[in-house]
User: Which sequence fits this backbone?
């Protein structure tokens, strides 16, 4: 069962109008929340980012944080799988016509769609993945988790066609992020990652990885990183709710460092796995 506009329905019965502004304009925002052992991971943080995205596009939030989390938990309770990826989106609804300015008195469309969580296998984690790079041709509000994902679709497709898993993006000679992940760089034992500004999505996994690095006393700099630094890095890794911490071993056909998943990527992923376990053993409080 998925949740659509106040009802729990089977996926085949979930219908949205062809005139929904999510379809016509990509006029909406979304979240992807991983669930481990039926426990949503960092739910309060995901809902806070949803609230920020909604506020940024002037879309009134239909629910309080507590209501959102209760809805997500209701969806989880109806699934057979223990580990899930919860896709949640809110659009500006169906105004009945295609007109650019915001419609009045139009309720939003709310969709919460669960799917089994597929994270990289241990083998993929050990082997790492390849990436291509591309100019970041997205807009200047990449901090909003918007439904307008055409750039990510095109860049992930280009990556796939090149036998790669991700596309690392540069804007004006500086690293921004992956098509659907944040990118960390390591040089001489120091981890670096771009700051959370309007040019990248403030990743929830990004925050966790920074916290874990700091807790374990690993040197970490949050700063702008040049393309040259990325191309000369000892390690690169990507982070996201579904990829966790995944080493990138090749960029544009050239090995990253020695061409193997680096020791810091491995350490951060093992800290992340351990952190996940502690969350899963604890009853959730929010
Ligand atoms: N994407 N940057 C971009 C552009 C992303 O799309 C994502 C996640 C991230 C990582 O964010 P987080 O750690 O909160 O998952 C960074 C999700 C998984 C998606 O669109 O499917």
Assistant:
């Amino acid at each position: 069962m998925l949740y659509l506009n106040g009802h729990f329905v089977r996926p085949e019965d979930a219908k949205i109008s062809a005139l929904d502004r999510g379809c016509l304009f990509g006029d909406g925002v979304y979240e992807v929340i991983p669930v481990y052992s039926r426990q949503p991971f960092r739910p309060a943080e995901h809902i806070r980012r949803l609230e920020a995205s909604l506020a940024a596009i002037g879309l009134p939030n239909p629910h309080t944080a507590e209501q959102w989390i209760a809805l997500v938990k209701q969806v989880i309770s109806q699934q057979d799988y223990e580990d899930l990826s919860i896709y949640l989106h809110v659009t500006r609804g169906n105004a009945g016509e295609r007109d650019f300015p915001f419609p009045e008195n139009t309720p939003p469309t709310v969709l919460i769609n669960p799917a089994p969580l597929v994270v990289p296998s241990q083998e993929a984690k050990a082997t790492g993945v390849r990436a291509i790079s591309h100019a970041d041709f997205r807009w200047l509000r990449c901090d909003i988790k918007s439904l307008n994902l055409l750039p990510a679709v095109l860049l992930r497709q280009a990556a796939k066609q090149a036998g790669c898993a991700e596309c690392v993006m540069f804007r004006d000679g500086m690293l921004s992020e992956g098509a659907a992940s944040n990118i960390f760089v390591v040089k001489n034992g120091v981890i670096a990652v771009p700051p959370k500004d309007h040019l990248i999505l403030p990743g929830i996994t990004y925050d966790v990885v920074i916290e874990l690095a700091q807790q374990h006393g690993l040197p970490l700099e949050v700063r702008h990183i040049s393309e040259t630094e990325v191309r000369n890095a000892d390690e690169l890794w990507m982070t996201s709710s579904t990829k966790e911490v995944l080493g990138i071993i090749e960029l544009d056909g050239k090995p990253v460092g020695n061409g193997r998943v680096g020791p810091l990527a491995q350490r951060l992923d093992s800290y992340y796995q351990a952190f996940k376990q502690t969350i899963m053993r604890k009853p959730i409080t929010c």
Remarks:
- The radius of gyration is 19 Å.
- The mean pLDDT is 96.
- Residues 2-116 form a domain with the D-amino Acid Aminotransferase; Chain A, domain 1 fold (CATH 3.30.470.10).
